[in-house]
Design brief:
The complex is a heterodimer of chains A (426) and B (456). Chain A is an alpha+beta fold. Helices cover 21% and strands 38% of the residues of chain A. Chain B has ten helices and 24 strands. Classes of the chains: A alpha+beta (426), B alpha+beta (456).
Amino acid sequence: MIERALELARKRAQGAEASLVTSRSTQAEYEDDRLKHVQVSQSTRLNVRVIVGGKLGNAHTTDPEQMEEIVDRAVQLAEFGSDAEFDFPGPAEFPGVNTYDPAVPKISKEDLVAAGAEMLDLLKNYNEEIKVFGGASWYAEDRRLVNSSGLEVTDQASFHGIGAGGVLVRGTDVLFVYQSRDWRRPILPPADLAGKAIGDFRLAERTASLKSKAMPVIFTPRGNYLLLWALLMGVNGKNVLKGDSPLAGRLGEKLAPESFSLVDDATIDYAPASSRCDGEGVARRKTSMIHDGRLECFLYDLETGGKAGVATTGNGPGCDSSNVIIPPGEVSFADMIASIPEGLLVEHVMGLGQGNLMNGDFSVNVSLGYKIENGEIVGRVKDAMLAGNIYDALHRIDAVGSEPDWAHAFCTPPIKIDDLSVVTKG
Amino acid sequence: MRGQMEEALRNSGADYAEIRIERAERTQIDFRGAELDEISSASSLGGVARALVNGGWGIATFNDLSDLSAQVREAAASARLVGGQHSQLAEVQPVEKITPAPTMERDFRGVPLAEKQQVVKSYNDLMVRLHPKIQTTHSRYSDRHREVSFANSQGSYFEEVRPDLTLTLVAVARDGSLTQRAHESFGAATGFEGVLGLEAKAETAARRAVDLLSAPPVKGDTYAVVVNPKLGGVFAHEAFGHLSEADHVYENEKLRDLMVLGERFGPDHLNIVDDGSYAGGRGTHPLDDEGVSTRKNYLVKDGILVGRLHNRETAAKMGEEITGNARAVAWNFPPIVRMTNTYIESGDASFQDLIKDIDLGLYACDMFGGQTMMEMFTFSAAYGYMIRRGEVAELVRDVVLTGNVFQTLQNIDLIADDLAWADGGGGCGKGGQSPLPVGLGSPHLRIQDVVVGGTQ
């Protein structure tokens, strides 16, 4: 079918690409201390891109019978599309990356239900007042992509995810904890994940008060989300090309101390965002974005790379990151904590996206964070807000941790930053 | 398709089963700055089967419609893993209804792309050119046409057509390091005619973004606040409406203790309503996604909490009347408890009555964003004006209102007679289903003792 779509498109376009993704997934979802539902899903998506008169058009459907209409629509859309200063890529060598484990789609509904039940029981055994949610799921897809330059890709990917969390309400205090993990093959036993969530609840049992001021702040691998979100908007080639990114025109500049580097790497076996080629059929690779503190490269796809006059980095379409790695440094988490007379450890923030994030400005609620006092974690800090600018903060990175961990598609160690503004009530 | 749907439901083995199938078409056009950023088009055909066995739900979603029986069986098999009690669903008369499509003077599906693009471009250009301090803009046009068909194992069958047309205009102005945003939007279940002639919205957004650059931030304090209809409507929806959703209430003990029917929630003259049958509302359809007819439901009447929003299951479990509030955002989602058109009814005061006695207060307008945590809310108004000696005075920015929704409702001491529906193009999000078209309305409200954040 997809060959037929390509053939139809080719007749009316200088270049054409067609892709078909079919997927299956199953999930058991827990909410409010019980199994809420079990869901099985099947989906089909046909996408057609064409270059007509030097412009790009794109349309998609879930209904294969609409193939002709979709080709037609893509051609119509090209009239208003952006300039396509590229050709679809021909056949190429792809890196050997494992993205599929046949064991994943064999996980039964019963197994998913049991995994969720085990996590629910463990959390309830720890504290029955916790309202538990979470669950387990798997996803598997087949992808076929063909284009007018002779490229033919057939690929498979799988995904297994589990999550365990809960809400503990005491008076007006709402404590929200969630741990999750996803990987392209079956992952750690659910008991380990529930154990992590219980660890969070345990650490949060005691509370501590913190006075508003600038202080050293440690971001855990999960807390690094705050730093990475704006930074990844900044290195997105499309934002750079449009001049929206504050990093535009600053390649080669020093953004952070030498201990800090940032890498996009889609070639790690079974990592959540890994694949042999991107959504445009371009070989995936490892791209160093920041090396020893210096801005080295932005992420590009065919369209934006073409306009910017640089090669795609295999991050298409959309110039979005794949797996994001901060290479570990030399300071252990324990030493990092021990080095702080008074500071804040940040696990989770809320309200990201309300400030001007593209500029790097943030002002967020610390929904899960702990006070560090005299080199020890002494208790959870409630009602704290963290404000500042990511690009200022990068310069004040004081230590990069030695123990990286995965959080979705980010693999990062704890990061210590000096002098961030923390605002607390009272 | 109807025959296959009914056939598939015949021997499900479930206590209850349903199939909903949707065919949808969508076009979206985005301008960023002066340039066309993206223009996209998509169509979909898919369905969801839901089965209830011993009180547990199983769900199957699919694009492949070739074997609906298999999908229903899959959903029922899943449900068996979940169930452990007895199934409860409020009784309803089976319906059979083919609803004619809402009137569209010009069906947007037949409007050439060039024309759609030209209309958005004209508004976007207007904003870009309005003032040299306009730094950038974002204009989004979106149309979506859904054809829904539904059948359940109790003999109900319906077909509905649900068009939705939106336009969102955002202007960003900059002066040195200060940036200010302003937006105006349109959303309605109409044809393409809906997005024509909206030049005033584009001008208003761009003008306001520029004006806000020279507006001082509001001084943080406790004020008497008058909210405009758009902010009042969002407040009714976000701060109060979500707490009235019975799926939350049923599962959450603390919320159940707060939301006790018969308790006083506001002054005598306060009435809060959710009405999915309201003619012309953005959240209007005759039947909800369980085939229950929509209706006018009072949540608060004469200041007393009198109702909440249900699907068939929560109504049965809580022993309350069904309300027709089960809605799904697209083919691949099951229906969940949602609002439709939520509004506060008009009172009998005039706008002048609301402001004339305020010596120093705030007139807060439109909504920029916000968050709620149970009964606590933090809302950013899009802009505001100080009220000084009974008159609307200077424009102020950074207007953030915080408080407890129950206290805030009690503090509404005057309600104007000018109920207006926000014709905004946003949507509601819940349980991963977003954006669901909803209607929001309110008259001007005066609220005493509102904590307003800002510079001290």
